[in-house]
Amino acid sequence: MEKFLDKDFLLRSAPARQLYHDYAVKMPIIDYHCHLPVKQIAADINFDNLTQIWLYGDHYKWRAMRANGVDENYCTGDRPDFDKFMKWAETVPYTLRNPLYHWTHLELQRYFGVNDVLHPGNAKEIYDECSDKLRTKDYSVRNLLRRMQVKIVCTTDDPIDRLEHHRKIKNDGFEIRVLPAFRADKAMAVEDPVRFNAYVNQLADASGIRITGYASFLDALKQRHDFFASMGCSVSDHGVDYLYSEDFDDAQAAAVFDKVRSGSTVQDHERLGFRAAMLHRLAVWDWEKGWVQQFHLGALRNANQRKLDDCGPDTGWDSISDLPQGRHMVEFLNRLEWDGQLAKTIIYNLNPADNELVAAILGSFNDGSIAGKMQFGSGWWFLDQKQGMINQLNALSNLGLISRMVGMLTDSRSFLSYPRHEYFRRILCNLFGDDIEHGELPDDIPWIGQVVQNICYHNAKDYFGW
Fold first, then answer.
1. What CATH architecture does domain 49-137 belong to?
2. Which distant-in-sequence residues (6+ apart) come within 8 Å of 421 by Cβ?
3. How far does Cα 7 stand from its chain's mean position?
4. How far apart are CA 304 and CA 281, in angstroms?
5. pLDDT > 70 in the chain, percent
6. Could you tell me which residues come within 8 angstroms of residue 235 by beta carbon, excluding any fewer than 6 positions away?
7. What distance separates the 2 farthest-apart alpha carbons in the chain?
8. Which residues pair with 295 in a beta bridge?
9. What is the tens place of the pLDDT at every residue in 186-224?
10. DSSP letters spanning 389-431
11. Where are the beta strands (DSSP E) in 241-313?
């Protein structure tokens, strides 16, 4: 009997199946961190074919294709869309045990009703069938979100963004809330004076504040922080090497700012000190507004310089970093906690060796003010696969309260990524079900089912106040 991706996929016990089918599957989705292009939601576009929605910008697939010997022209290059899809179809049979094998077929099933295993022999038929559907109104991007029971989407937005697309979505009366998140990484990037100065000029234009020094720079950034709040934003996000905690005061930060504005290159300790000063300032603003702050730690970006120069950023040349995290994390959080200014915090870890470290440190900063104030975020990027999720869930279970976790997020640029929530939920239910099966948890399906539903939906709804 065919078992691949059937209704009991990943559910290896009777309790796991009951938890998933009776409790988890019915829960809506809150996608509290993603990179969906909000302009496309505002315009409610249709994609012309499966390649456009599936392969454009998907560095996960590009990495697999390159590993399979596919030329770059079929990834980031200008080959025709159908030819690119065929190269992906040739790669899929070789992705066995890679999460892409599961995700590919989950997406074909859940969105298009295609239950066949993709390979070169049936690729044209699948391409034509899915592309025909994508061109219909039922497959506009807003209807793709509706199809997956998405209730809230939180995009990732730069402070200089005017948020006109968010405004249009709201004015349209779209029932799925699409909210911005404040990501000020470029406001800390003083290592490149040319780019930083161009960004400061854009910030001045967006805020309407003339920037003459560090103080007015902060005023302009604060104006954008306030504007985002007026547009429904209650979440920040940062992609950082580690939680910068260097001892750096405003006078030193101002000196670095002036140095960069003059076009000079900063030294390494100045760069890190400026980042520390800015990250602390942003964290305090988040606390003042009652926002949730998110930190994505541990990426080693742009590892392959030659290919980065050829293809540009965000094209799949990144890796996992082994930078020390613990001391900086404690110092950063402790300073905020000492001043009574530590906001609700989610930390996503990319180095699996640091799972227990992150879980243990976060447990030291829960203060009893709310349940689950300090969150160890779900497996991120290279770790949002089966084993990565299991490892994160086990570390959180052992050192914290998994029952208070705010669940899964897509962290994706693709409108076809929402089956990753199903993937997470099946893994979650299987973990609980396995413990019940082995007598490590009581056979109390109603209570554990409620915990599962909380992790899937209710915890996030309460935590973010949505």
1. Orthogonal Bundle (1.10)
2. 29, 31, 148, 407, 408, 410, 456
3. 27
4. 33
5. 100
6. 32, 33, 154, 179, 181, 182, 291, 292, 293, 294, 464
7. 71
8. 238, 347
9. 999 999 999 999 999 999 999 999 999 999 999 999 999
10. HHHHHHHHHHHS-GGG--------S-TT-THHHHHHHHHHHHH
11. 292-297, 299-300
Q: Look-up: residue for tokens 């030291």?
A: 364
Residue type, 35: H
Q: For strand 299-300 and strand 177-179, is the pairing parallel, antiparallel, or unpaired?
A: unpaired
Would you list the domain boundaries of the chain? 49-137
Q: Which two tokens stand for residue 4?
A: 């691949």
Angle between helices 250-261 and 214-230 in degrees, nearest 10? 100
- For 150-182, write each residue's pLDDT tens digit: 999 999 999 999 999 999 999 999 999 999 999
Alpha carbon 177 to its chain's center: 17
Q: Encode 177-190: b = buried (16+ Cβ within 10 Å), e = exposed.
A: bbbbbbbbbbbbbb
Residue whose entry in the numeric block shows the structure tokens 């670095």: 256
103 vs 90: CA distance, rounded Å: 16
Closest CA to 16 of 435, 414, 440: 435
End-to-end CA distance of the chain: 44
